[in-house]
């Protein structure tokens, strides 16, 4: 098997090009069928996400230019645009790359777990299209196994590396039973949407969204089955929430010390955990002076993120060692398969030669040729056919003084060197 991996990702291409080379779920089937028409392509898998498009093929003697030409043609793009922003790996390096990708070591966010599911889906799509044979079956099963081992044996995904995730993880540490807590989200932008996603993953169901534009708050609330508030309702409603996470574009604080102090009194001093992800701040810094209010800013969370990223980078070094071992395991299996194929081919050819010569001998006997002559000819031709290959290799090795080959053949053919002849 000759493995080729062609890709475009967040490090090599702008988002405008990544969007153009992405494959939709509907186009994947057509793309795999198109790949199958290329010369020598035996197997193929296409991985396509918002940050990467990668094409893996098993194709003997295929040049990387052929694959990049296909990618450009399929998406009706200039070939040079693909060449200028792509990378290509072959054989060992391609095996190492796909394992790193599935393990989250090549992601925009180091160690992110979503990519493994996306690679699994790509493999499933290719298998349903009949583009996964024994080589890719083994390769991707090994890839899934190493990704799982990296996830369980290292700290690659243990710590938050986004402020949205860090905010939720911090809340989880403060409130042991996070799903039972009521959460107020102030704002309805991308950051708050990410926070909401992480909260849902933690099982939080009591969520309210407050925003200056009610329609935008409603759009987010509909995704969360959440309650909608206006900003003017905050002073009266704040007492209902254990956790407040805010990220708006307001130029002035929306939540002041007095508002929080009033809410704490109504809560009978049950604590409130507040996270301010906005710049400028949404929550007055003086809130931290209140005994039962715990306020964290984006700077506080950024320190956590930087520390966690350093931890992930250390874990990535461990992960690389695990991946290296799995790469060797796969390549050893691949080499063994090639040896098995060679043995099978050798035996089939030898049996075909035998059958051809036996058929000739039978015909000669039926024509009345003496049996002794037929047997002599059969033995002579069969011996010559079987000796031809090894004899040619021995002569070439001797002429080139290649002792490695001659010694190997001596062992394989069970020959005893004639030391007296060599001394002469």
- Rg from alpha-carbon coordinates: 34 Å
The largest pleated sheet is described as: 6 strands, parallel
Mean pLDDT: 90
Q: In order across it, which strands form the biggest sheet?
A: 7-6-5-8-9-10
Helicity level, as a percent range? 55-70%
From the helix content, strand content and strand pairing, which structural class follows? alpha/beta
Strand content: 5-15%
The helix count comes to 16
User: What is the approximate shape?
Assistant: elongated
Sketch the topology as an H/E string, one letter per element. EHHEEHHEHHHHEHEHEHEHEEHHHH
What gap, in angstroms, lies between the N and C termini? 46 Å
- The total count of strands amounts to 10
Task: Provide structural commentary.
With 424 residues, the protein is of the alpha/beta class. Helices cover 58% and strands 13% of the residues. It is built from 16 helices and ten strands. It has helices at residues 15-21, 25-36, 64-74, 79-84, 92-102, 114-128, 134-153, 163-174, 190-201, 214-224, 234-237, 257-266, 298-366, 371-399, 403-412, 419-423; strands spanning 3-9, 41-48, 52-59, 87-90, 182-186, 206-210, 227-229, 243-246, 272-276, 293-297. It has a six-stranded parallel beta sheet, sandwiched between helices. Strands 2-3-1-4 form a four-stranded antiparallel beta sheet, sandwiched between helices. Helix 12 links the parallel strand 8 (243-246) and strand 9. Helix 7 packs antiparallel against helix 13 and helix 13 packs antiparallel against helix 14. The protein is elongated and about 115 Å long.
């Amino acid at each position: 098997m000759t493995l080729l991996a062609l890709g475009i990702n967040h490090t090599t291409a702008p988002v405008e090009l990544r969007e153009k080379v992405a494959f939709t779920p509907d186009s994947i089937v057509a793309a795999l069928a198109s790949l199958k028409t290329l010369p020598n392509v035996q197997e193929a898998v296409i991985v396509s996400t918002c940050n990467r498009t990668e094409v893996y093929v098993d194709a003997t003697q295929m040049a990387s230019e052929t694959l990049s030409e296909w990618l450009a043609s399929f998406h009706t793009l200039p070939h040079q645009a693909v060449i200028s922003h792509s990378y290509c790996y072959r054989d060992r390096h391609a095996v190492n790359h796909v394992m790193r990708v599935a393990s989250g070591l090549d992601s925009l966010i180091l160690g992110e777990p979503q990519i493994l599911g996306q690679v699994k889906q790509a493999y499933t799509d290719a298998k349903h299209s009949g583009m996964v044979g024994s080589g890719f079956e083994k390769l991707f099963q090994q890839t899934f196994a190493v990704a799982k081992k990296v996830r369980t044996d290292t700290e690659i995904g243990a710590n938050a590396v986004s402020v949205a995730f860090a905010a939720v993880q911090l809340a989880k540490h403060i409130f042991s039973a996070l799903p039972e807590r009521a959460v107020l989200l102030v704002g309805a932008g991308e950051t708050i949407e990410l926070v909401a996603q992480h909260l849902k993953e933690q099982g939080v169901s009591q969520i309210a969204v407050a925003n200056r534009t009610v329609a935008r708050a409603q759009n987010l609330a509909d995704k969360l089955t959440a309650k909608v508030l206006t900003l003017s309702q905050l002073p009266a409603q704040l007492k209902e929430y254990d956790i407040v996470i805010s990220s708006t574009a307001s130029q002035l604080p929306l939540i002041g010390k007095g508002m929080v102090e009033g809410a704490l009194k109504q809560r009978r001093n049950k604590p409130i955990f507040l996270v301010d992800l906005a710049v400028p701040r949404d929550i007055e810094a003086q809130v931290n002076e209140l005994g039962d209010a715990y306020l964290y800013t984006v700077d506080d969370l950024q320190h956590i993120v930087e520390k966690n990223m350093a931890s992930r980078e250390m874990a990535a070094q461990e992960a690389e060692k695990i991946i290296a071992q799995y790469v060797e395991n796969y390549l050893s299996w691949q080499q063994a398969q090639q040896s098995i194929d060679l043995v099978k081919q050798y035996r089939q050819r030898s049996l075909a030669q035998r059958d051809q010569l036996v058929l000739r001998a039978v015909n000669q006997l039926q024509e009345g040729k003496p049996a002794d002559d037929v047997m002599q000819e059969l033995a002579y031709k069969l011996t010559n056919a079987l000796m031809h290959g090894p004899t040619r290799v021995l002569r070439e090795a001797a002429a080139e003084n290649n002792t490695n080959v001659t010694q190997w053949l001596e062992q394989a053919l069970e020959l005893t060197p004639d030391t007296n002849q060599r001394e002469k």
